Amino acid sequence: MAALYVGDLHADVTEAILYERLSRVGIILSIRVCRDMMTGRSLGYACVNFQQLADAEHALDTMNFELIKGQPMRIMWWQRDPSLRKSGVGNIFIKNLDRSIDNNVLYDIFSFFGNILSGKVVCDENGSKGYGFVHFETQEAAERAIVEMNGKIIKDRKIFVGHFKSRKEREPELAVRAKEFTNVYVKNFGDDVDDNMLRDIFRTYGNTTSVRVMMDEHGSCRGFGFVSFARHEDAQKAVDEMNGKEFHGRMIYVSRAQKKVERQAELKRMFEQMKQDRISRYQGVNLYVKNLDDSIDEECLRKEFAPFGTITSVKVMTQGERSKGFGFVCFSSSEEASKAVAEMNGRIVATKPLYVALAQRKEERQAYLTRQYMQRMTNTRPVPNQVISPYQAGPPPAYFIAPVPQAQNRNTAYFPPAAQVAQLCPRWATADYQNMPGAARTSAPSPPNFASASQGARGECAASQSLSPRPDSPLSPVCVVPQYKYASGIRSSSNHMQPLTASVLASAPPLEQKQMLGECLFPLIQNMHQDLAGKITGMLLEIDNSELLHMLESPESLSSKVDEAVAVLQAHQAKESSQQVY
């Protein structure tokens, strides 16, 4: 196996940067930076496959802990089976390290006892945090390191070396230790309090070993301090009797002293619980309403939704004094909320049709789009002489799938080389596609009365020339498109397009509404993401028509949805690349 794990990477490190650095030692077959499925951001580690095992060993020996974008990369053999890493076998913990000891020094100190799979000193923005980990290949090497190094003096510090314990193993020990505390935290006292005054007030509860009032760089009291007792019982008594008492004219707070990590974990659990309670409280009763007219305020919104049940809260989101075009309505029960969605979605209020749905968190919306996109990709089946959806991007200017070879797996899509792709003009391949009178149209033909209806109602926004296949085109046996005449005004420049309104859309047949919306959305999306415009347009057309109309009117809403679609596409590409590494 010639696969290496490269960890502790900066978030901006890409495959190209890694290749440029690691290819100096040998030929690299593949590099994959692992990324988050939802956001596409780097997870801080990568898998690198070398062609030769000797090159991988050379990279591990000579390039471990080299800096990339200011961070040392940690290299180890790629473990396909995570059970060794999770078992903790051969893993030791070292603490009370001098701040000058880095990864290289730690590696050199402990490499004497056996082959090291991985080792690191834990750091933050200020440097070393004074502890680290070393993972040996065998448990025997770890045992020798503990016996020989525990209690040794390194750079005037007596280090502790012991077996690594997972968080689950440490939590019971921390709970027992917390019950036997002797250190007390005191805050919210005046600026005039010093160590002696704090000692005098707490010595009545027992023998104190140390008292400290914390000061700033100017020598002024920061309003908090610590009192350490000799016995746990005395500390507990001080907490019980002094917490909430008046001291120098203020109500002081007294509790068990906690480490920073412990406080952060406790606050995290508390806020997570509050978040879950809030989600469960509003689940199924909170509605998201958008495409609001500028004249709609909270009172008007409450009045519109009042007939459907008891409303507990209404909020129209604003920027300054101007409405942002969306808001929230919360009902007292899920039945009332469901009834409001069924009745109010699509109803015209003031001048605009409302979009009403159950409110979702951003993570839920992204997960829904991801599932929807993945499902469409999974359901795609290769069909000989079949034209891809006009909204699906392909190798421009062709959207043709050649017949699948007999040996091809029928459960995966087959995309032939560009040289084999029929040279057809897709509906949205280029901005001047309307000036190609002989190009082939890849979408289903419009009804004969479409030209007159769209000319009078849709204007230039739905400009699309009726095209027929060339006699020599591979599509000619399967895609015969009749000729329809369009007025010259429909082919005019997109700079003179008329807006697509709800009334115009409603007057068109249902089968044509998505096409009308797509032809208006595509040029807008193409300005933002030219290469992905086709795919993004197809994804957005899965959304309700009223919401699509709102996106045409609101560039901010369109940009937000396009960003979500791009995130989904990146997640899909990351998943595909991860499956192709080995």
Percent of residues in beta strands? 15-25%
Main sheet specs: 4 strands, antiparallel
- Assign a percent range to the helix content: 25-40%
- Please work out how many helical segments DSSP would assign: 18
Strand order of the largest sheet: 2-3-1-6
Helices and strands: which structural class?
alpha+beta
Terminal CA distance reads 11 Å
Q: Uncertain regions: pLDDT < 50 for 5+ in a row?
A: 381-497
Average of pLDDT: 76
Radius of gyration: 33 Å
* Molecular shape: flat
| Beta strand count | 26
In short:
The chain is α+β, with helices and mostly antiparallel strands and 582 residues long. The chain is 36% helix and 22% strand.
Keywords for this entry:
18 helices, 26 strands, alpha+beta, four-stranded antiparallel sheet
Describe the structure.
- The chain is α+β, with helices and mostly antiparallel strands and 582 residues long.
- Helix content is 36%, strand content 22%.
- Strands 2-3-1-6 form a four-stranded antiparallel β-sheet.
- Helix 15 (510-528) packs across helix 16.
Give the arrangement of secondary structure elements.
Layout (H helix, E strand, L loop, with lengths): L2 E5 L7 H8 L5 E8 L6 E9 L2 H10 L4 E2 L2 E2 L1 E4 L5 H5 L3 E5 L7 H8 L5 E9 L2 E10 L2 H11 L3 E2 L2 E2 L1 E4 L3 H13 L3 E5 L7 H8 L5 E8 L5 E9 L2 H11 L3 E2 L2 E2 L1 E4 L3 H23 L3 E5 L7 H8 L5 E9 L2 E10 L2 H11 L3 E2 L2 E2 L1 E4 L3 H18 L6 E2 L12 E2 L48 H8 L44 H6 L2 H19 L4 H8 L4 H9 L1 H25 L3
Antiparallel strand pairs: 1-3, 1-6, 2-3, 4-5, 7-9, 7-12, 8-9, 10-11, 13-15, 13-18, 14-15, 16-17, 19-21, 19-24, 20-21, 22-23, 25-26
